[in-house]
Design brief:
Strand order of the largest sheet: 3-2-1-4-5-9-8
Number of strands: 9
Structural class: alpha/beta
Order of helices and strands: HHHEHEHEEHEEEHEE
Length: about 200
């Protein structure tokens, strides 16, 4: 994770968490999960933030645990959902998470906060977590032109989708499209890939 982005999330974790929880529910994301994820399968949310999606996944038949690089956001997640599992792990290493340990892996709008050189290894590492026949959902906020930072100092890397597709070349792509998020109203790119058996 970009250091300035991580510092922003740690410093203003409560405000970011409140903003996310006040947004409309991400119905479009939930529909995609319902369509493609393996029901009842072990599920990981990488970059889980304040835990909103982890809670929804658990409530809807996808036993999930969350990980994030921000201690501040993890504290928010643990206080909102004390019965759910959250752990600190940072891309691209995701130390402590075993390869092939999940049926479903979700990473919602996280990789654009990485240094562009870390995007490919991060995608590769997340896909390694997926069991044969399992499903990987990945999305990121699209930044046109050059890398940008918002008023909080968060990095929004501009990169070609081909970079991600190249890391998933051995996968079966089930979804690959650019849309406007129903929750945030931002332009995002979504990919759903199945790990071959």
């Amino acid at each position: 994770m970009d250091r300035a982005t991580l510092a922003a999330y740690d410093k203003e974790a409560a405000a970011f968490a409140q903003d996310w929880h006040d947004q409309p529910a991400p119905r479009d994301l939930q529909e995609i999960v319902g369509q493609f994820f393996i029901k009842g399968g072990a599920t990981a949310d990488i970059g889980c933030g304040s835990g909103r999606e982890v809670a929804w996944l658990n409530a809807n038949g996808f036993p999930a645990e969350g990980s994030d690089a921000s201690e501040g956001l993890l504290a928010e997640a643990r206080s909102r959902y004390p019965k759910l599992r959250f752990a600190r792990a940072e891309l691209p290493d995701l130390r402590g998470i075993a390869s092939g340990s999940f049926d479903n892996v979700l990473c919602e709008t996280v990789i654009m906060h990485l240094d562009p050189a870390l995007i490919a290894p991060s995608v590769r590492r997340m896909f390694e977590l997926v069991k044969p026949g399992g499903v990987f959902y990945l999305s990121w906020r699209v930044t046109a032109g050059d890398d940008a930072r918002d008023a909080h100092g968060r990095l929004y890397a501009a990169f070609d989708t081909a970079l991600v597709r190249a890391e998933l070349a051995g996968a079966e792509l089930l979804l690959d499209r650019e849309v406007v998020s129903a929750s945030s109203g931002k332009v995002i790119h979504r990919i759903v890939a199945r790990q071959r058996g």
